[in-house]
């Protein structure tokens, strides 16, 4: 069994924010594989289905971004999975809008949701699908954290939305390839 978690903040107010690209991607993936978010487990909305030879649980944590680890840890305990079974989809300020990067392990890069997961499951060794959301133009050395928060909690503009609409299906393809052929093949194609 594999656990695929899209990071974001619950609620209509945040639905189209840059910070919610993980929710957008996992929702698209679920729709493609006819998986419905019809359960509430471990502080998350979840659904179960199949991708290739794997049974997968897709999840959208309902704890807000900075407490995502609480939901992931609860799902680990309930589903009896480990870090090697976890794929997390999240936004990344350091990548241009629409760029995808897959990796196994590593630091959080300052992402509060990833920080929370690492803290709660006591390891960095899980799969990540990073989706670029770009940076605010003012994001130079010395820019206040508030400017970054404001940027990630705002919706994509029209030009970004076109790029993201093309990127979301690629994330689903990348995850399917990761599951079928492994991280190296997926990284070679999508990084």
Describe what you observe in this structure.
With 191 residues, the protein is α/β, with parallel strands linked by helices. It has a single domain, classed as Rossmann fold. The chain is built from six helices and seven strands; from the N terminus they run E-H-E-E-E-H-E-E-H-E-H-H-H. Strands 2-3-4-1-5-7-6 form a seven-stranded mixed β-sheet, sandwiched between helices. A hairpin with a 2-residue loop joins strand 3 and strand 4 (54-61).
Sequence-ordered SSE layout with sheet pairings:
Elements: E1 2-6, H1 21-32, E2 39-41, E3 44-51, E4 54-61, H2 68-79, E5 86-92, E6 100-104, H3 112-121, E7 127-132, H4 145-152, H5 158-181, H6 183-190
Parallel strand pairs: 1-4, 1-5, 5-7
Antiparallel strand pairs: 2-3, 3-4, 6-7
Helix pairs in contact: 1-5, 2-3, 5-6
Task: Give a short synopsis of this structure.
By secondary structure, this protein is of the alpha/beta class. Helices cover 39% and strands 22% of the residues.
Structure keywords:
6 helices, single chain, globular, Rossmann fold, 39% helix, 191 residues
**Looking at the structure, what is the overall shape?**
globular
Based on the structure, what is the oligomeric state of the protein chains? Answer: single chain
Mean pLDDT: 95
Cα-atom Rg, whole angstroms? 15 Å
Widest sheet: strand order? 2-3-4-1-5-7-6
Helical percent range?
Answer: 25-40%
């Amino acid at each position: 069994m594999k656990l695929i978690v899209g990071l974001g903040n619950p609620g209509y107010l945040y639905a189209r924010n840059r910070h919610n690209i993980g929710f957008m991607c996992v929702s698209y993936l679920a729709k493609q594989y006819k998986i419905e978010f019809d359960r509430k487990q471990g502080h998350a909305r979840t659904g179960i289905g199949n991708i290739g030879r794997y049974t997968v649980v897709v999840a959208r944590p309902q704890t807000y971004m900075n407490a995502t680890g609480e939901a992931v840890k609860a799902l680990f305990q309930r589903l009896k999975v480990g870090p090697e079974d976890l794929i997390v989809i999240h936004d990344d300020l350091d990548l241009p809008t629409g760029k995808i990067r897959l990796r196994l392990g590593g630091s959080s890069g300052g992402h509060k949701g990833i920080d929370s997961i690492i803290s709660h499951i006591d390891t960095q060794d899980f799969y990540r699908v990073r989706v670029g959301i770009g940076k605010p133009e003012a994001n130079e050395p010395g820019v206040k954290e508030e400017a970054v928060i404001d940027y990630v909690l705002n919706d994509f503009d029209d030009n970004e939305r076109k790029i993201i609409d093309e990127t979301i299906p690629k994330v689903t393809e990348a995850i399917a390839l990761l599951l079928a052929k492994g991280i190296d093949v997926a990284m070679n194609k999508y990084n």
